[in-house]
Amino acid sequence: MILIADSGSTKCDWILLENTDNNIVKRIRTSGVNPSVLKKKDIAEVIDNCEELSEFKEDITSIYFFGAGCNNKKGEKKIKTIFEKNFSNVTKIVVKEDLMLAVFAASQEASVVCILGTGSNCCFYNGDTIEQKVKAMGYILMDEGSGNHLGKEVLKNYYYQNIPEDLKFSLEKSFKLNDDKVLSKLYGAKMPNKYLAQYARFLFENIEHPYAKEIVTFCISEFIDKQLLKYKNELNEVPLYFIGSVGYHAKDIIKNELKKRAIKAPENFIRRPLSAFIESVKEDRTFLKKVV
């Protein structure tokens, strides 16, 4: 069997395919597996605690893992080492950054691809390799427009007492905010970006509120100006794609902000890149050979 995974910091989606016909055997979801923020034992624990993965361990012969935190040799090696120990019959392990999955989910042709999920990223795919003009430095320094960024702005505005009373009431009711708990989650948890991203959902649930819309617009504008506009020349020649749940839910705001900057908006926004990728695998039996 072939195991294909798409992992961010918040969640990891796994799909099992038959070797012979690439039909889907099982869809599995676990918590996120990000080697830049999790230790080996924590990642191994995610796999060990998933009964559905354990059930098929002996049947899996190939693994393709696309994930946040896998854009460097250290992260790639950490994931490969864990898979080698946990899946004894695997003969092929491919570990790539999540950008590569986004690229293949969007198009196999030259394009500019943006990820807006728990984290954010942007690249130019020339039809062969990924080119990045801004090095991704993670959720502390960057991640403009991401769930992490949106959540951070929500909490900042809350504690600076800038949120209107009606929205503040809804926020407190939804999250039962406690100062000590918030501090513990931000500075004591393994993945504070995952915690912050929870507040992004609150914004989209209240997107008709002018202040919620203002925060989302600010974060999206930051992403466009600081990351996407680095590819302005490429955007004159190739299509643009947005991948991920934040991009999907913020598509109307993204279209509006792109229009202000005279950038043609994507025709569609891909919420779940793994699903689009799997469709390509099912249509073309040789497709996975391109992922090396």
Concise overview:
The chain contains 14 helices and ten strands.
Spell out the key features of this protein:
single chain; 46% helix; 5-stranded mixed β-sheet; 292 residues
Given the structure, what is the number of helices?
14
Instruction: Give the SSE string.
Output: EEEHHEHEHEEEHHHHHHHEHHEH
* Low-confidence sequence ranges: none
Rg to the nearest angstrom? 19 Å
How is the biggest beta sheet arranged? 5 strands, mixed
* Percent in helix: 40-55%
Question: Which strand order do you get reading across the main beta sheet?
Answer: 3-2-1-4-5
How far the N terminus sits from the C terminus, by CA atoms, comes to 18 Å
The percent range for strand residues is: 15-25%
- Assign the structural class, choosing from mainly alpha, mainly beta, alpha/beta, alpha+beta, or little secondary structure: alpha/beta
**What is the global morphology?**
globular
- The beta-strand count equals 10
Average residue pLDDT = 92
